[in-house]
Design brief:
A 3-stranded antiparallel sheet has the order 1-2-3, covered by helices on one side. About 30% of the residues lie in helices and about 5% in strands. It has a domain of about 100 residues. The longest helix is centred in the N-terminal third of the chain and has 21 residues. It is mostly helical.
Length: about 170
């Protein structure tokens, strides 16, 4: 019994000794010839939001008008899947949609930041030509998104729509 206790004590002693030897050491102020460096406080990174992942190439040279519309519509669909209890009156205009996506929704979930490159100083969501995207409620839970297209004039033949109109 005494041998077993002595063995355990010896093992604990060795573990403690190893921890003391290999523990990270705090560095004391350097006595080198280098001047001390001053560190500026950095702002912590903000939490990522869905737009950071889904709208990465939105409006960039890597994408087209059609790809931008598809990215935005997929993004909006994804948000709507997460916020089932919604009413299109909460996002009946472009600015309302931006606020809804920025966290002014019943779930208080943020999906984008207001300082995103595709939002102007007035809080409007813009297409690649810096034209406001037209938001039109179609029903209580569905909206239509319209990009003015290359001519930058809304409601002309080159507009891009989501969802696509049903041809009859």
């Amino acid at each position: 019994m005494t041998k077993r206790i002595l063995t355990r004590v010896a093992i604990l002693f060795l573990i403690t000794l190893l921890v003391i030897i290999f523990r990270p050491r705090k560095h004391s102020p350097s006595k080198s010839n280098h001047p001390p460096t001053t560190q500026t406080p950095s702002t912590p990174p903000r939490p990522p939001v869905l737009a950071d992942q889904m709208l990465v190439d939105f409006g960039s040279p890597k994408s087209s008008d059609q790809q931008d519309l598809e990215s935005l519509s997929t993004f909006v669909d994804s948000v709507f899947l997460q916020i089932k209890n919604r009413d299109s009156r909460e996002f009946s205009t472009n600015q309302d949609l931006v606020l809804f996506l920025a966290g002014k929704n019943k779930a208080q979930l943020r999906f984008l930041y207001l300082d995103s490159p595709y939002i102007d100083k007035d809080g409007k969501l813009l297409d690649r030509r810096k034209q406001p995207i037209i938001v039109h409620p179609r029903s209580q839970k569905q909206i239509e998104l319209r990009f003015a297209g290359p001519d930058q004039t809304p409601y002309t033949a080159d507009d891009l729509l989501w969802p696509k109109p049903i041809k009859t």
